[in-house]
Write the structure tokens for this entry.
Amino acid sequence: MTEDLKLNMNAYLPLRDVVFNTLREAILRGDLKPGERLMEIQLASQLGVSRTPIREAIRMLEQEGLAVTMPRKGAEVAKMTLKGMEDVLEIRAALDELACQLACERMTEEQLSRLEDKKVIFEKSLQTGNVKVIAEADVNFHDVIYDATGNPKLVNMLNNLREQIYRYRIEYLKNADNYPILIKEHEAIYQSLYNRNKDDAKEAIAIHVENQAIAVKEVIVMQG
Amino acid sequence: MTEDLKLNMNAYLPLRDVVFNTLREAILRGDLKPGERLMEIQLASQLGVSRTPIREAIRMLEQEGLAVTMPRKGAEVAKMTLKGMEDVLEIRAALDELACQLACERMTEEQLSRLEDKKVIFEKSLQTGNVKVIAEADVNFHDVIYDATGNPKLVNMLNNLREQIYRYRIEYLKNADNYPILIKEHEAIYQSLYNRNKDDAKEAIAIHVENQAIAVKEVIVMQG
DNA sequence: CCTCTGTATTTTGTATACAATATTCATTAT
DNA sequence: ATAATGAATATTGTATACAAAATACAGAGG
């Protein structure tokens, strides 16, 4: 209710895209909480646009799994159940393994060195203690691998899955006890990709996702 | 241009959903061809609704990968390039393997016997020579496996991937030479699930998808 | 006091009107 | 003849108006 959502009018994009990005960010940041209703008129007046782009943005959020709409009842921010999160993580594990496998085959030397850079930057980011900075550094690390697959549709799906986890993953990154584990896991992933060893890479990423899964599921159980 | 699209007004659904289903079907049937423009006013008058539900349906098609829109230019039916199809198939192979693996772990006896039924029905359908009947029987067979995963999000993704392939897969099913191969592959998949042998199941489905991949890619190359 | 019902209000669903942009095609100048 | 220009047209982008359904709440009846 106390949302002061604001549009990024910089880019010259259709309003539906601007609204979509704005709402998406708000959901991921937690400004719009799971279960919160997305009322068209309210959002329209808050963002200073008409209902039309709001509606189209909601349709897009819906497909991303970030919103759910019941006919004649309206839309709300998607609530993630434990089961839902397990389902997402199950898929993510498989696609992340695929991504690592493809990256082993296709990664260029330049991408490998970028991956090492991002790995180091991530390690440094942990010292800041700033969760948002850490999360972004982590995303950047994995994005190098995603891009290296050369499969934009896969990248898109992985980004989408990550979004659905992101909100809950933040909690995991707040606990400094996990940092040494994360560093080791990233190192293992990097090394196996460097050696272009598919099996090692798949195992390394599987462990990484599994540890996330444990942590994320705990957060959901807490919130109930 | 000669489309006589008609709405299924049976169900009491929001028009956007009815329009979405109608357009989706039309694209999958090939009535709306890749690259064909989706003009709002034209579609609206053809379907007897206003532009609003058309626009929302297009947003949904867009997220399914069945339509592409360029700002200020409009939407068109997604063209599938060879590269695009390879990307889709790469993902599909991974998720179909995951589905088989999960089905091995979770499939009930009842689902197993349904799978056998669908396998037999598929074999019979081949004798009709009716491609649409065959395609549907094939879909039904695989749907049993998908449902057995108990993961609705995965089912959704697999259906979505299947849609993108469907239009091109039809050609493969027109050639009766392929029928014995399909029967054998389905049998292998069924047997490995029956034995709950994950590795066998993953291998069987991988072969199945790979053979599809070869055929589908040929179709695309033909069409250019 | 509780429940049911009916009305008022809110909210979504759909249609239409208007604005902005892109495309097309004819015209003109080189 | 070809290329550039500009007006006419077509199409999308956005806002608003109206209709239909759901929700909330108050009042009547048990």
Notes: The two ends of chain A are 22 Å apart (CA to CA). The CA atoms of residues 59 and 114 of chain A lie 36 Å apart. Chain A has two domains: 15-77, 82-223.
